[in-house]
Amino acid sequence: MASSHESDESDNPPSPPKKNVYKDPDDGRQRFLLELEFVQCLANPTYINYLAQNRYFEDEAFIGYLKYLQYWQRPEYIKFIMYPHCLFFLELLQNPNFRNAMAHPANKELAHRQQFYFWKNYRNNRLKHILPRPLPEPSAAPPISAPVPPPPVPPTTLAAAPPGAVPSPAASALSPMQYAIPSGSALPKSDPRNSGVDRRKRKKDG
């Protein structure tokens, strides 16, 4: 009986003890926020320069952490990113040459200046390729003006002149004789030379 029991134990070796797997008490919410905040800090070239000068990029564990953070480029996580430049710099930080270059202040200023120009001109440059260009307008021909008719000639009371004759400007004016009193009118004609003689005769007769 003892031998049979020993053979059963040899056939089934004891299982190794289970490892305690760490589980976040808040289901990873705190870890999510911390990693999101750190990734977005990488959008600042001054912060990257700070990490380089304090030799964070010489730590292999920190380099592995930067590789791990690339999961933020996936669609289900990228929607939480408010500063997209952080993902651009996160990709550049995978290159050791870039990590070493960012330790110099001149390179930090260059990266910061190029980032500013990108923010300043990106929208206008993008609209140039998105918006359709308007077609050139055809040059309109000047409108043709209709000929102006000559002014009408006013009617005159003069007799018709023979063909080829040029009327004189004085002919259209009325002659002084037209204003004379016609003959046979009842208006008396007074002569200033005879008015004084008539008065003297009247005095003598009276």
Automatic annotation (TrEMBL):
GO cellular component: nucleus
Gene3D superfamilies: Mediator of RNA polymerase II, submodule Med31 (Soh1)
Keyword Nuclease: no
A Pfam family annotated for this UniProt entry: Med31
Region (Disordered) location: 1-24, 138-206
Listed Pro residues bias regions: 138-155
Basic and acidic residues bias spans: 190-206
Chief location of this protein within or outside the cell: nucleus
Location(s), subcellular: Nucleus
Keywords on record: Activator, Nucleus, Transcription, Transcription regulation
Entry's family note: Belongs to the Mediator complex subunit 31 family.
Function: Component of the Mediator complex, a coactivator involved in the regulated transcription of nearly all RNA polymerase II-dependent genes. Mediator functions as a bridge to convey information from gene-specific regulatory proteins to the basal RNA polymerase II transcription machinery. Mediator is recruited to promoters by direct interactions with regulatory proteins and serves as a scaffold for the assembly of a functional preinitiation complex with RNA polymerase II and the general transcription factors.
Oligomer and partners: Component of the Mediator complex.
Name of the protein: Mediator of RNA polymerase II transcription subunit 31
